[in-house]
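Support reply, case 0932

Customer input (verbatim):
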Amino acid sequence: MRLTGLLVFAALAWHRGLSPRARLATAWDAGWYTRIAAHGYGRTLFWPDGAVQSDLAFFPLYPALIRAVTVVLPVTGGTAGLLLSWTAAAAAAWGIYLIGERLYGRPVATLLVLLWGLLPHAVVLTMAYTEPVMTALAAWSLWAVLERRWLWAGSLALLAGLARPNAVAVAAAVLVAAGHALWRGEGRSWRPWAGALLAPVGWCGYVLWVGMREGDLFGGYFAVQAGWTSRFDFGAGTLRFLKRLASAPYDLGFPMAALITAAMVLLFVLFALDRPALPLLVYTGVLVVIAVGGAGFFESKPRFLLPAFPLLAPVALALTRARPRAAVAVTAALAGLSFCYGAYLLTLATMAL
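Our regenerated output:
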């Protein structure tokens, strides 16, 4: 499905005289990651509206992997980023399938992967972005938690915490699951303790490193994010933007972002009502809270929720119970939306993804 979406995007890009590879490898945040990989941290942009965009806002794992690939292979940073993203997307699909199979069975697991690849903004999975890497690490960390492999769970959560800011959700899931296991009597083993200790090290380590570099140990990183107009305000910024969206014309990507985010919130409610496994509930809950409660870059909220694959479980379960024709029709409609909207985002849209 993602390959088909890639071909649709490439056809539209060629039609408009654009390079598909350049759009996938260098557009928006991808350019920041490849620059960090090549030159390290230290770039800051100052804009007339007062925004101060420092590359310290970008976590280090993905640029480090890009640099490693360019050392081993004779490719540019953009190509290395694409190879990493495509590989990570495949690893994420495998991890998502294993979780779905363990909890719901093979048919639901297959549909869970399919639906994740057909989200309207799933074109990000083929870009030089960090969401595929984070999702892969999160999926395998959560699978390790379900299998009670605490060292693997903590180690993968540590790596996820070095990939993206909202990967703190993975650490939270491991911490809560380990605490629950200890409360239920697994305290005789040192492994849940070790997993819980490892899980937040990556995220906390980078946030504190930026704080030390900025001269404010606990607030430096959040000041950097504020320079990008990104801050957590418990949803006040989201509500203000929705009011503006209702009274003024915006690019298609903005109302689509509102619809997709609202749909994901609704799916979270349905998912929670189904009494899911505790680590999955915590993981998705933290991702939703961060996306809805954060201000700035409203158009990027669907991308922030792309790693929240467990939220698609209610839809996957419904499709397995539906008549085959209805399931095929829904899947075809989702595919058409995903392919067309993904092509639009990378060839026609003017807002950041």
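We compared this against your earlier run and they match. Two observations from our side: The mean pLDDT is 95. The longest strand covers residues 44-46. Please reopen the case if you see a mismatch on your end.
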